[in-house]
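Review form for a predicted model. The reviewer records the input and the model, then writes brief findings.
Reviewer: anonymous (R2)
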Amino acid sequence: MTRAAKPPSDAILITGFPSQEARAVLDQALRDDDAARVFALVPRGRAEGTNAMMESLDRAQAARVEVIEGDSRSIDLGLSGQRWRALAAETSRIHLCHALASSNAGRKLAVEEVLRATDEVLELARATAKRSRVIAHSTALVYGDRDGRFFEDDLDVGQHLRDGLVEANARAEKMLRAQMGSLPITVVRPSIVVGDSVTGEIDRRLGSFGLFLLFVTAPPELRLPSFGRSDARLNLVPIDFVAQVAYAAGKHTGSISKTLHIVDRDPLPSRAVFELIAQAAGRRVNQGTLASHLATALVRAPGFERLGGSPRSLLDALVGDAVFDDQNARVCAPHLSCPPLASYVGKIVEYVRASLGAAGPSAGPTNASRTDARTDARTDTRTDAHTDARTDADPARRTESSGV
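Model under review:
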């Protein structure tokens, strides 16, 4: 009797390093697929920065990861022709994450970098033997300053976008939608992304980092006001939950040619969110609320951008009231639900405090302890879970006139 041949293992390309989002997807891939191989595309000259990431993996996991120096914004991902063709021959899935060359990148540069990276990944997907799945990581902040209920197919809703990276994601989504008829593409849109629910790590480039930083650094005697509408729902999702849903969606055939909202299905009112962060930080929240126009003035003040990556897009969420339908996500990842903020807010506060040096050198978890903490927490979670001719092909110029 002839045994059936084992199906080939997946080979997954992840772009966007060294962002926390890319690292979270890598972590999920290694835990979810025991045999999957992962190609981590790291900006040229920054491969050494992946040492901590690789050291946090056990030997078996590290053996399945190949760090590739390149540039997702360059032709052929900045690789030699031979290496690019080999990558195309092996890759079965691509997670398109974005990490700007500079966290202070201006609006025009942000748009150009994201559009070029999207175009290059689509080119690679077309060249793969079986038309690789493309899972494009966007954001639900593409709705900008609009309020109301948004469905996963929505994109153009008459919104105004304050932030360059959010605008870039919205324009990239248009590129992706235009290719959905010929490539198996999935777009995932998380709401407001915060830190890791297990380790508390939070990327400084996230707009939400500034929110936590505000509470951690405020004088203890100062009562901080709430921002915007105290009854408006503030939809926060931890980065590890985003990676879980995105990875599950990338394996589910039902997500092809669809957009998925990755959200908290039971979001807290903004005042409750502020009170939880304040309590974890040992601060207090004033009974009053900072009016929307004053909150806007604060965010536009010189130097405020240094608090986090996209505070202006975060402001739209703080002063608005958006509700996100997530029917596609429910179908593709029915077993996953967002952990409540109360279960991890303290971890993020402690991470932010430690990153400022206020909690001493031992406050931050080591790579080994992070791995152990994640292993223990995932076990509990699973138990408790509801069980060369392209030189002139400049996508930024081609889409210059496209509105959002």
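Findings: The first helix runs from residue 20 to 32.
Further findings: The two ends are 59 Å apart (CA to CA).
Recommendation: see findings above.
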